[in-house]
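Hi all, posting the design record for the shared folder.

TITLE: backbone redesign
STEP: 1 of 1
STRUCTURE INPUT:
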């Protein structure tokens, strides 16, 4: 969703009607709470007004979005935090200080999150780390497959892996193959002996 949904004159005006429908005046269309949630995530400023009275009900609609997100299982608010928050209602001294404190804390958290993302981008040379991890995974798989071919009696060696005929490497490879075949024969004999019992 583009930020262009808002105008240069101010935030997008959303009207809420008695039937609980929400109307975006910038796009001339009805919207949902999920749509408003996405607007928040996209950084699009909006104000929700009661269509009949003109009263600003943005706070209650934003609270409703939080309730809906929590109901979907996206639990961000710890139970102790919620209990403490409820306990502050009605305390005039706390009601004056707490909103500013929470607002400042959330801005600091967002700033720290941006700095961490920038640090990760810079430290990875501007490359998303998953690309490097995938490449490392491919390299590891190639090494693993090559190792399996070396130990597998059914492996198909390539021309570059095959030592020249009559060389010491060929003799050593043949000795290893012979030793492996003897071990396999011994294992097969043990399995057959066990199955007879």
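Okay, here is what came back for every position:
SEQUENCE:
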């Amino acid at each position: 969703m583009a930020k262009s949904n808002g105008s240069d004159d101010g935030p997008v005006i959303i009207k809420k009607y008695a039937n609980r429908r929400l109307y975006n005046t910038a796009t001339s269309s009805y919207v949902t709470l999920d749509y408003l949630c996405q607007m928040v995530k996209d950084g699009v400023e909006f104000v929700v007004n009661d269509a009949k009275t003109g009263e600003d009900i943005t706070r209650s609609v934003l609270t409703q979005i939080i309730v809906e997100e929590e109901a979907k299982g996206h639990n961000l608010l710890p139970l102790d935090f919620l209990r403490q928050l409820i306990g502050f209602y009605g305390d005039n001294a706390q009601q004056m200080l707490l909103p500013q404190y929470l607002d400042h804390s959330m801005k600091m958290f967002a700033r720290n999150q941006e700095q961490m993302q920038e640090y990760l981008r810079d430290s990875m040379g501007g490359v998303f780390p998953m690309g490097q991890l995938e490449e490392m995974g491919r390299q590891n798989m190639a090494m693993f497959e090559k190792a399996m071919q070396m130990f597998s009696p059914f492996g198909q060696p390539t021309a570059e892996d095959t030592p020249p005929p009559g060389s010491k490497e060929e003799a050593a490879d043949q000795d290893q193959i012979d030793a492996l075949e003897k071990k396999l024969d011994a294992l097969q004999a043990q399995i057959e002996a066990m199955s007879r019992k």
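COMMENT: Helices lie at 33-41, 58-71, 79-88, 92-123, 129-151, 168-196.
Let me know if anyone wants the other runs.
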